[in-house]
């Protein structure tokens, strides 16, 4: 029999139980025991789903209260020193992640960054030359013991030593690889412990094997893995998010009992692997997409793995391409069919069933005639041909846009003059990124509107009230360029998804973004049209009620694409130009409504960068050009802003320059020096506002710290181009945090003006 398993399961809970439990614990409204009980109930529910579907191994160790990389730091006794004084392991995790605990400890929060090219964030491990490691297996073993009670063979999951170090930051310039000899014995120790617990397999994830690895990292894999002591625990080397390519030989040469590969993003690697896998190793074939939500074409999957099955027999396992962390729980939780697309969707629960069905079909041809199989394939076919999906004029316009290079009418210097004449902004203008706290009142308003207790007029009046209050607050604080606050948006992508044809939003399709924070990516299923203006009403209203400029606020094509579940039946670039086309129309309508500053956020531009360098130029071309297509039709005096977060900007600074926005605001507070170094090497010529404080932490930033950052920035940015702003939007903060923080920021800008 062919076996199947998943690489990991979502952990927030089908109803986001973990989110509520975490936030309640952090707010001091429940005990740590309550939280831990919720967590163990969630694990039990996940295992039950896997048992019901008939997996051959239960996956354990994929759960995390906050983040699995943070868990690995804990497992290895390698939490940042400053987090270790919290009273217990759980609070140590939170102290490291958030910079505070309910028991009142505080420390600076750890840096957070995107997990490969996903929208999930991990807590970056910190390395220094004198670091020691010490195995702390208690949290993992506790989960193993819970799972053991279910009587199924177990497969534990950990992040492998090389990926752990590679994903870490060096705090003191130490060479991370030098820490490897200290780290490896802990893995040997862990193997023995897991084996003693009766665990069958350990999935040891080394996703960095799909990256362009520097030679020293490549070379260290073999000796490292050969030095691990292992008396009989089966190791499954986990790779995902791309092709092994130049690391394929390497991956196959390691002394492990099995290899998992992603055949959704890289089906072409199957044959070369089969050619070289040898007579003993298990191949876990990731054929069900762990990153996207489309019903799988099981016929195609079956054909793909047929040879593998013949060659490997029982050594072939079927699997999700990666952890199911990146998809929601269950399509069954969606109520009414959204724009008719529910039938085409597959979330974690459905993916388990798809794996079971595919396994059944591989083992027994009769299954191809079953109702389940035929229904699955009928749905796949339906999406291919549906008129909901295909609209010729939309495809045409996008194709034409893609064939041209778009530019503003005049170069930056000339536009800057026209804009300065129009706005008369002070040196170092202050602004924010767009959103303001989504307060209980705003949420309440939305809830009542959805429940039908408020009609549209009353709802919009409530939002207007909120907007006006936020304008008054901004004016009082003394900000130079205002925002309307985005109270009408639940989410910067979903808001547009709701209004555009060709995009559906889900009711309950939550995916973890970081910690307790979840996002609900819309589903781009078809060609995109804009039935009517999406933001003009709010932006016009805001501008009419302030004498200061209020930025219009849109989400850029790449970000909508990257933070949505994207159709997989055409290249991303085609979808991006379709999005850019509707944004271009919106931008012009904003301008016509008197909005003179328009921000088009592209926080995901860097994150959407392909993992392999060879694919960068093609991506950057369409990403940058589609942005320019969206914004380039405006007058010189209309100021185009953009915003980006979480970026190692060094490799894309030329592309950012190519976007040619008049002003860019950037996330930097958690890695300020890096950006400054980059800017020193590659000067940036347009307006730029490196974030002066970290909005992810509830701590109020000190004026002096911000002033320090600004002074440093002036070494690499011409004074006339420097903007002053926080790192990112403020929707997750409370007004009580936002107001003093922004007051201090405005004061820091004022101090800087005096010095300048
Ligand atoms: N304008 C958005 C906001 O302020 C930008 C958010 C983001 O960059 N993720 O919320
Ligand atoms: Zn941001």
Automatic annotation (TrEMBL):
Residue positions binding 5-methyltetrahydropteroyltri-L-glutamate: 16-19, 114, 119, 517-518, 563, 607
Keywords: Amino-acid biosynthesis, Metal-binding, Methionine biosynthesis, Methyltransferase, Repeat, Transferase, Zinc
The protein's required cofactors: Zn(2+)
Catalytic activity: 5-methyltetrahydropteroyltri-L-glutamate + L-homocysteine = tetrahydropteroyltri-L-glutamate + L-methionine
Residues involved in L-methionine binding: 433-435, 486, 601
Keyword Transmembrane helix: no
Gene3D superfamilies listed in its UniProt record: 3.20.20.210
Cofactor note: Binds 1 zinc ion per subunit. Binds 2 Zn(2+) ions per subunit.
Domain Cobalamin-independent methionine synthase MetE C-terminal/archaeal: 428-750
NCBIfam families linked to this entry: met_syn_B12ind, PRK05222.1
Protein name according to UniProt: 5-methyltetrahydropteroyltriglutamate--homocysteine methyltransferase
Organism: Venatoribacter cucullus
